[in-house]
């Protein structure tokens, strides 16, 4: 399965250069909104184009929630920097009208995409009890629909009250060293100058793809060979 992963856009339209026919899955890591460089109208137009793209290729395109998107979808309880109060009503309506097009995660075999990543300690102490389905993706989906507070935890590194953050807020300084065991994770959220992968062992790794601020044309391509 040939995949391409698109990091945090924050209004950027560089994703439009991608040829959808070249990939089996096109995965957006979330954070489509909020920007220190793009005008609100650009952000809204770009988000609507992404939604249209998803509708055109419903089985191929995966849209994940990011922490910035959650602020507009679930309200002010879930704050983050760059929030645009003047755009709240319009963006909130867009997200609510199309909420079924967005996923909390995407899983294929032992490859897992989330916005910020899953930390071993967070999973063990805050989520393992709820992981009762055949796939972690399904467990995350169900608990997101139930608004499980652990999914929205913000760690100290991001100004929160928890040691480490949940899958929307996990900071790289924690996710890099202790990613969830036995998964190959692909995440965004933490801006880097290049795509970075930490291979813990042959079964566990984490790759950071939030590079579009410095490399606006750099996306993460990965071909997953199914040998099962």
Structural class label: alpha/beta
Q: What is the 3D form?
A: globular
Beta-strand proportion: 15-25%
The CATH class name reads: Alpha Beta
Q: What can you tell me about this protein's structure?
A:
This protein has 228 residues and is of the alpha/beta class. The protein has a single domain, classed as Purple Acid Phosphatase, chain A, domain 2 (4-Layer Sandwich), CATH 3.60.21. Helix content is 25%, strand content 18%. The chain has six helices and ten strands. The strands form two sheets. The protein has a five-stranded mixed β-sheet, with helices on one face. The protein has a five-stranded mixed β-sheet with strand order 5-6-7-9-8, with no helix packed on it. A hairpin with a 2-residue loop joins strand 5 and strand 6. Helix 2 crosses helix 3.
Summarize it.
The chain is of the alpha/beta class and 228 residues long. The chain has helices at 40-56, 67-74, 88-97, 120-127, 136-145, 172-175, and strands at 2-6, 25-28, 61-64, 102-103, 106-108, 111-113, 184-187, 196-201, 204-208, 220-223.
Q: Which descriptors would you attach to this protein?
A:
228 residues, alpha/beta, Purple Acid Phosphatase, chain A, domain 2, 5-stranded mixed sheet, 6 helices
Q: How is the secondary structure organized here?
A:
Blueprint (H helix, E strand, L loop, with lengths): L1 E5 L18 E4 L11 H17 L4 E4 L2 H8 L13 H10 L4 E2 L2 E3 L2 E3 L6 H8 L8 H10 L26 H4 L8 E4 L8 E6 L2 E5 L11 E4 L5
Parallel strand pairs: 1-2, 2-3, 3-4, 6-7, 7-9
Antiparallel strand pairs: 1-10, 5-6, 8-9
Helix pairs in contact: 2-3
């Amino acid at each position: 399965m040939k995949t391409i992963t698109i990091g945090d856009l924050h209004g950027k339209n560089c994703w439009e250069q991608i040829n959808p026919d070249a990939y089996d899955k096109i995965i957006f890591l979330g954070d489509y909104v909020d920007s220190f460089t793009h005008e609100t109208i650009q952000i809204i137009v770009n988000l609507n184009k992404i939604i249209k793209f998803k509708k055109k290729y419903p089985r191929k395109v995966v849209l994940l929630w990011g922490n910035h998107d959650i602020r507009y979808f679930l309200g002010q309880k879930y704050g983050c920097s760059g929030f645009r109060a003047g755009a709240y009503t319009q963006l909130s309506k867009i997200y609510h009208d199309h909420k079924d097009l967005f996923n909390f995660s995407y899983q294929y075999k032992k490859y897992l995409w989330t916005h910020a990543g899953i930390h071993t300690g967070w999973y063990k102490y805050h989520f393992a009890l709820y992981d009762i389905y055949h796939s972690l993706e399904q467990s995350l989906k169900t608990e997101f629909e139930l608004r499980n507070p652990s999914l929205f935890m913000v760690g100290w590194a991001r100004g929160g009250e928890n040691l480490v953050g949940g899958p929307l807020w996990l900071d790289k300084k924690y996710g890099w060293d202790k990613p969830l065991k036995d998964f190959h994770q692909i995440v965004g959220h933490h801006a880097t100058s290049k795509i970075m992968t930490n291979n813990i062992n042959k079964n566990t790794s984490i790759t950071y793809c939030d590079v579009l601020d410095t490399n606006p044309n750099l996306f993460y391509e990965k071909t997953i060979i199914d040998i099962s």
